[in-house]
């Protein structure tokens, strides 16, 4: 029986581009102690791979359990590549550059996102819920709140780092969960381990009940007896 949160296994959560730990608030995780990894400041022109390894240094455990959404999943892939003893779950994400959509490959050569004012980017993101896919009213409110609070310069760097990402290696120590209705990272382009029917890009919020058992099982976390 697990009754003391301090005795539970820690799981380190990496949020998506423009998001923070609020994106994980709908997951029911009595079986672990979630630790939300804060972003560090990227170096000028830093690649995603380099940033992932610097961020890894902020995690104190030798072989941590990771869970990453979208951009956070890509960082988890790079960390898992470097350490085969890490276990990582990625949600609504991509493992290699081949799994990125075609429009992202085109955007690499036309980086107009660098020229758009911060306020415009926030307004555009809030009006593009169809792309992110938050459905429930509580999820939509949380999504809009996250967008209002996001640090646009970091997001601009992160988006550019994704476009320049060249990974072709799929580490064997991870589980990829993806939804069939993801418009940001289309399901047809990824090879996932677990399919969530109808899941959209923000399914970590709207389909949390379907995701949590896979997270617990793959990371081999024990059930928590609440009684």
UniProtKB/TrEMBL annotation:
Q: Which UniProt keywords apply?
A: Hydrolase
This protein's source sits in the domain of life called Bacteria
What SUPFAM superfamilies does this protein's entry cite?
Answer: alpha/beta-Hydrolases
Question: Quick check: keyword Hydrolase in the entry?
Answer: yes
Q: Which residues form the AB hydrolase-1 domain?
A: 51-205
**GO MF annotations, alphabetized:** hydrolase activity
Name of this chain's protein: Alpha/beta hydrolase
Q: Could you tell me which species this protein originates from?
A: Deminuibacter soli
């Amino acid at each position: 029986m697990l009754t003391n949160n301090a005795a539970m296994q820690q799981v380190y959560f990496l949020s998506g581009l423009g998001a923070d730990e609020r994106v994980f608030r709908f997951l029911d995780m009595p079986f672990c102690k979630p630790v939300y990894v804060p972003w560090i400041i990227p170096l000028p022109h830093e690649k995603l791979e380099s940033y992932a390894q610097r961020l890894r240094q902020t995690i104190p455990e030798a072989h941590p359990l990771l869970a990453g959404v979208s951009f956070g999943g890509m960082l988890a892939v790079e960390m898992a590549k470097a350490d085969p003893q890490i276990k990582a779950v990625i949600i609504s994400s991509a493992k290699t550059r081949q799994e990125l959509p075609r429009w992202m490959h085109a955007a690499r050569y036309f980086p107009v996102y660098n020229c758009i004012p911060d306020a415009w980017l926030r307004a555009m993101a809030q009006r593009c819920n169809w792309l992110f896919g938050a459905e429930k009213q509580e999820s939509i409110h949380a999504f809009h709140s996250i967008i209002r609070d996001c640090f646009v310069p970091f997001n601009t760097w992160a988006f550019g780092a994704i476009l320049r990402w060249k990974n072709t290696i799929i580490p064997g120590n991870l589980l990829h969960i993806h939804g069939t209705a993801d418009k940001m990272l289309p399901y047809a382009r990824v090879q996932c381990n677990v399919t969530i029917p109808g899941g959209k890009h923000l399914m970590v919020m709207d389909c949390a009940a379907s995701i949590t058992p896979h997270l617990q099982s793959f990371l081999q976390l024990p059930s928590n007896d609440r009684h």
